[in-house]
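Minutes, project check-in
Item: structure for the 305-residue chain
Input as provided by the requester:
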Amino acid sequence: MAKKEYAFYPGCSSQLRGSASNYLTSVNSMCRTLDVKLTEIPDWNCCGASIGYAESGELPRHVMNARNFALAEKHLPGRDVVATCAACWLGAKETKEKLAANKTLKGDANECLKEAGLEYQGKTEVRHMVEVLIEDLGYEELGKHVVKPLEDIKFAGYVGCQTNRPFGINGESFENPVYLDKLVETAGGEAVTDYDQKVTCCGGALAFSEPEKSQRQIKDIVESAYDHGAEMIVTPCPLCQANVEIYQGEINKKYGTKFAMPVLYYSQLMTVAYGGSAKQAGLDGQVIRAKKLEEIAVKVVPVKK
C-alpha cells in the first residue's frame, strides 16, 4: 500500500499528449519515488477554466467541476482530489466554496448532475500537488530522497497569480510566497530569494487576445530573473510555464533581447534530484533546453559505502 493515496485530476493541459504532458511525466516519476499513488478520476471532464467564463453563466462552470468531485466521491471515496494545473485547482476550489455557501446553486448543480446519475456531496477536498508535497509530506521527507543535488544552479521561483489567490499554501505569504524557494533548496539548488516578479501574472489568455500586453509582462518576468542571477525559472503552473517559455522568441524579435531562459516545473527538478533521467523528468518536452539540468540527469548516482 502506498504511503499516500489521492484521486487525481490531470486536467486538459497536463493529461497524456496534452500541451503540458511533460509535467505529468515528471509528476508520475516524482510520486513513484515518494510512494504517492495518484488514481485518475474515471471519465473526468474539463474544469471550464477558459470557456466556462464565455457568456454561459455561472452554473455550467460549477457543474463541470461538481461533476469531477461527484465522480471522485463515487469511485474514489475518502481521497482528496489532487490537481497539477493551477487553473484547474483554482476553479475547483472556487466551486467548492460557492456550492457550500449557496444551497440554491448546489441544488441546481445537483439537478443537472442527476441526469448522469451523479450527486455532488461536497465531502472531497481539492489540493494542488504542491500542497500535497509540502503539507502532507514536508520538506524533510522530500529532502531524504535527493541523490543528485542540483548544485551550482540558480533558480527563480515564479509562483504566478493563480496558486497565490486567497487559498495558497498553508502559512505562506500572498505577497512573498517562499515555497518554491524552499523546494529548490530541498533539491540542492540555489533559490534567488530576492526575485521580485514571483507573483506577477504572465498575462494568461491575453497571450492570444492582447499579445503585446502579455509579452511585456513576460519580458519583465524573464528580465528580472536574469537581473537577479537566475539560470532557470521554476513554476507550479502549466499556463505560466508555456507563456514564459514559448514567447521568449517573440520578445527577442520585438525588443532586441537575447532571452533563452529555461522554464521548468518543480516536479522536473525533484525528479532529476531523485536520480531520474532526463526523459523521466520530461526534459525532452522543453522548448528551451535546460542543459545544466540535463547534465545532472546523466550523472551516475554515487554509491554509498
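Outcome recorded: The chain has two domains: 4-129, 146-297.
No further action items on this chain.
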